[in-house]
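From the methods appendix. Each design record in this collection lists the tokenized structure first, followed by the designed amino acid sequence. Records were kept in a plain field format so they could be parsed without special tools. The example shown here is representative of the layout used throughout.

RECORD:
FOLD TOKENS (203 positions):
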């Protein structure tokens, strides 16, 4: 009986499970509030070697927001602006508690000519996907997406103004499609097994 239970659980774990949507959006927070660790399943950080960058992400009101009134911001004087160059920039990084197969973030132009970029990486830091926005004017929104089909291997993303053009952009409305936590999958498996045994007992 125990072996059949283990076999049943293993089979359930091997079957693709419904994915979970996780989101991060700066709306609903006051200006200057640290939102680095407030979202379920996502940890935000500011990365790059720009002097005095503190590594955190904040909410700030912005008339260019793609949703609501706030965007992601850093602690620098640039605040709402992001530049993806990690050697001298201030990029937005988002780490996922569970690997994702799809990510999307709104890139917003802040002047007459801007380009933004989104990069996705696996847990070893290997680049899995890259998106460069079209030319954006002030307030124009481009939703950058990276879709890995069934390969749930995106551990984190980095977004900001394009390195090739040395632009800065605003960022808003992050979404990812992640696999459920292993514990959640196990509970689903055990629940299914319990239901099956109850039905047999009723017969």
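DESIGN:
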């Amino acid at each position: 009986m125990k072996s059949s239970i283990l076999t049943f659980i293993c089979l359930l774990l091997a079957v693709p499970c419904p994915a979970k949507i996780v989101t991060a959006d700066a709306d609903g927070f006051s200006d200057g509030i640290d939102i680095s660790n407030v979202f379920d399943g996502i940890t935000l950080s500011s990365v790059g070697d720009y002097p005095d960058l503190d590594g955190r992400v904040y909410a700030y009101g912005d008339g260019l927001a793609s949703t609501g009134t706030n965007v992601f911001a850093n602690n620098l004087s640039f605040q709402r602006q992001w530049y993806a160059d990690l050697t001298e920039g201030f990029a937005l990084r988002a780490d996922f508690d569970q690997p994702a197969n799809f990510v999307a973030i709104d890139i917003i132009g802040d002047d007459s000519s801007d380009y933004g970029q989104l990069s996705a990486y696996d847990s070893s830091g290997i680049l899995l996907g890259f998106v460069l926005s079209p030319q954006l004017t002030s307030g124009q929104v481009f939703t950058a997406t990276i879709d890995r089909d069934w390969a749930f291997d995106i551990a984190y993303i980095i977004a900001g103004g394009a390195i090739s053009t040395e632009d800065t952009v605003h960022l808003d409305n992050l979404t990812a499609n992640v696999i459920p936590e292993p514990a959640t999958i196990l509970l689903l498996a055990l629940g299914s097994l319990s239901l099956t045994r109850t039905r047999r007992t009723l017969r």
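APPENDIX NOTE: The chain has a mean pLDDT of 87.
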